[in-house]
Amino acid sequence: MAKELQVLNALDVAKTQWYHFTAIIIAGMGFFTDAYDLFCISLVTKLLGRIYYHVDGAAKPGSLPPNVAAAVNGVAFCGTLSGQLFFGWLGDKMGRKKVYGMTLMLMVICSVASGLSFSHDAKAVMSTLCFFRFWLGFGIGGDYPLSATIMSEYANKKTRGAFIAAVFAMQGFGILAGGIFAIIISSAFKARFDAPAYQVDALASTVPQADYVWRIILMVGALPAALTYYWRMKMPETARYTALVAKNAKQAATDMSRVLQVDLEAEEQKVEQLTEDKSNQFGLFTKKFLHRHGLHLLGTTTTWFLLDIAFYSQNLFQKDIFSAIGWIPKAQTMNAIDEVYRIARAQTLIALCSTVPGYWFTVAFIDRIGRFAIQLMGFFFMTVFMFALAIPYNHWTHKDNRIGFVVMYSLTFFFANFGPNATTFVVPAEIFPARLRSTCHGISAASGKLGAIVGAFGFLYLSQNQDKAKTDAGYPAGIGVKNSLLVLGVVNFFGILFTFLVPESNGKSLEEMSGENETDEGSVPNVEQSSYNRTVPLV
């Protein structure tokens, strides 16, 4: 019956209009901020070690102790996981729009606060940083289910995948912006405050002004989020939430008449008939949900979990991989600010050459070849390139082969983004009922962040040298970079297998996918057959 609602049909068949692009920018700037805030920490962790954990007479610059490094890198992910579950649930209870503003304000306040500290003592600075980055992550977590759900409920049927993927693709620009801004700041400080390399003068290699560098880089993350707050508050609630969850047909018709600039009928009787139908009243923890969507939720959670183990362990610790192959010089040959510059330059190059293009390839092709094909292809090539890096790892460490290593490493990022990193975000926003859509997306995203935590914490220890004498200060011996890459290759292979649980939503309306257009208690929703018709090409 839901497919007969005029207001929802009008959204499904609407031509691409200005309001679509407005929604992409408003939601996308949240993701731009999310990526900037989450990944900029990897640019400054080496600097934090030099400033706060310097040891007089040590051969190498100071570095964060293992427990502190794990906390600084991973605490935002713990917050993100909590935020995805909480705000995902709240988005279905209170409405997408009301909760959307809360998450943004939390991100702005905590971005600024994470650059502040109560004293110059290392313990106080790290404690303050971790506290505010947890709550920053909590706000970022809410952005995942809300942005995806809002965009899916605003989009038309034909280009919905591209619109949701475009919101997520702003993450690539956020990573890129973080690297570029770190290059600019470190260059400016390097030019103004010249310092010798660590091996020349250990104490003078870290100028006092370096303490401002990491703070500025972290705090600037508040700007893009603050700039979009007004526009988020101006967006009307989505028609699908207003009609199908809040049961206010009149308000849904009024809001969408203004957005689409057409006259729409309220259809209060149809909405009442639909929402009171027992087949569309089941909750998350019911047999009916398990029957209709249990395997789909298992598919979206497992694929996102496996993807993020590989994706975040690579992304957060790429500076260590670059150092291992000699692309970034040894720490003692640089001063503190120069090290930030070189790490940022490497991350920016990877983002520019592989991360950003990968996202936009997904945007271009997701509604042509479908979500399933892109996700399967992405996991397959990530597996291939990870093994290609790992098996002949000693070959890649030779000076003449470093560029080849970087190319292969970039390709794994390209196929992560032209693959499961984008599709795992898109699909959960399309296949679940409106009253559970934000919650299920939040659960799927939280599963992903659990994978990110495994990658972020686990890789710190796993990638350590097998020889205890060659490990970083305070770390036990690990399995080495080569074996870590082999483990990640196996993780990606399991991603291929679990992708077969995820249905294809290309070309179908949200109500077709969720089964909300079914009014007969015994009927099986269209989503059940979708596994057998993976791709639905659009003319």
Describe it for me?
Keywords: Membrane, Phosphate transport, Symport, Transmembrane, Transmembrane helix, Transport. This is Major facilitator superfamily (MFS) profile domain-containing protein. The chain is mainly alpha-helical and 539 residues long. It has helices at residues 6-13, 18-39, 41-52, 66-94, 96-113, 122-154, 160-192, 210-219, 222-234, 239-245, 249-260, 268-275, 287-316, 318-324, 336-369, 371-390, 393-397, 402-417, 420-426, 434-462, 480-498, 510-514. Helix 4 (66-94) packs antiparallel against helix 20 (434-462), helix 7 runs antiparallel to helix 8 and helix 16 (371-390) runs antiparallel to helix 21 (480-498). It is globular and about 80 Å long. Mean pLDDT is 85; it is low at 520-539.
Rough shape? globular
- Average residue-wise pLDDT: 85
Instruction: Report on the biggest sheet.
Output: none
Range of helix content: 55-70%
How much of the polypeptide forms β-strand, as a percent range?
A: under 5%
Low-confidence region ranges: 520-539
InterPro entries: MFS_dom, MFS_sugar_transport-like, Phos_permease
Main location: membrane
Pfam families: Sugar_tr (PF00083)
Subcellular location: Membrane
Summarize the structure.
With 539 residues, the protein is an all-alpha fold. The protein is built from 22 helices and no strands. The two termini are 26 Å apart.
Short descriptors:
mainly alpha; 22 helices; disordered C terminus; 539 residues; globular; 70% helix
Topology record:
Layout: H1 6-13, H2 18-39, H3 41-52, H4 66-94, H5 96-113, H6 122-154, H7 160-192, H8 210-219, H9 222-234, H10 239-245, H11 249-260, H12 268-275, H13 287-316, H14 318-324, H15 336-369, H16 371-390, H17 393-397, H18 402-417, H19 420-426, H20 434-462, H21 480-498, H22 510-514
